[in-house]
Amino acid sequence: MIDYKSSGVNIKEGYKTVSLIKEYTKRTQNSNVLNGIGSFAGMFQLNGEYKNPVLVSGTDGVGTKLDIAFKMNKYDTVGIDCVAMSVNDILCHGAKPLFFLDYIACGRLEAEVAAGLVKGVSEGCLQSECALIGGETAEMPGFYDDGKYDIAGFAVGIVDRDKIIDGSSINEGDILIGIESSGVHSNGYSLVRKAIKDLNEDFQGKKIGEVLLTPTNIYVKTILGLLKEFNIKGMSHITGGGFYENIPRMFKDDFTAVVDKNSFNVPDIFKHLMSLGVDEKEMFNTFNMGIGFVLCVNKEDEHKIINKINNFGFKAYKIGHVERGGKEVCLK
């Protein structure tokens, strides 16, 4: 007899997965969530605090960092990365994350692994103060190898139209402030995996694979706190493409970001990658190099903003300034 299970899809394992993940989704939900996991769609009501609300959305995945999670048999941190990649992006326009949905695909579903991934997503949502209101788990035998998973997510946030941050108020002489990253975050892992062959090698008292799985910083609470007090003119989430691609994305006009590469601490993991043969320009064009998020602000607010960020628990640095012309990054 031919049935779904004999073709490689275990429906009972799917039911078990849903049962395991319900506890993780429930802890992220608030009074705006109108239904729970198991419905055909998630429902989220908007409250009346916004005069002219604009919904801001973003989607992303974790990339080949997942391969390290598989090899280290550790699944509960990459879910945080999945949330971070989307919420930090929409944050760049001043949006407050409202809710998140995830998508998990695999060759053969193991409920405990899927639940571990969702546990991380739930933690990322808690850090972002947004609700996990739904998702999809797809078992696709013959398409994905057994033991291989992919995870992606979708975030929706909200901002008043007259408070959207789009870089239009940036001027020459404005200051660039960088907020520390937690390490490699979630970009450049194809290069990392080529350079680092043994994930079990010692790196400062830990397995280097564990260091590489350090989850991406989520900047939501810090940035939303700053927006209540200060005029933030532009923001960039430093993801794939590093400094060179991401910082100019905050500029609406023709400006260059002049960055002092000695103004902030470069984590040891990046120095290790350079010692393995990756040159400095490639590093700044691929990785965050220790700066996960960049703000453009008025010069007179520089010290107050840096102090405020430090109070939120992140280290912040003045990393450069804005000059007219070029629409590029100049590292000095």
Description:
This protein has 332 residues and is of the alpha+beta class. The protein is 31% helix and 24% strand. It contains eleven helices and twelve strands. The protein has a six-stranded mixed sheet with strand order 8-10-5-11-9-12. A four-stranded mixed sheet has the order 1-4-2-3, with helices on one face. The protein is globular, with a radius of gyration of 21 Å. The model has no long low-confidence stretch (mean pLDDT 93).
Keywords:
single chain, alpha+beta, 11 helices, 31% helix, six-stranded mixed beta sheet, 332 residues, 12 strands, four-stranded mixed beta sheet
Summary?
31% of the residues lie in helices and 24% in strands. The chain has 332 residues and is of the alpha+beta class.
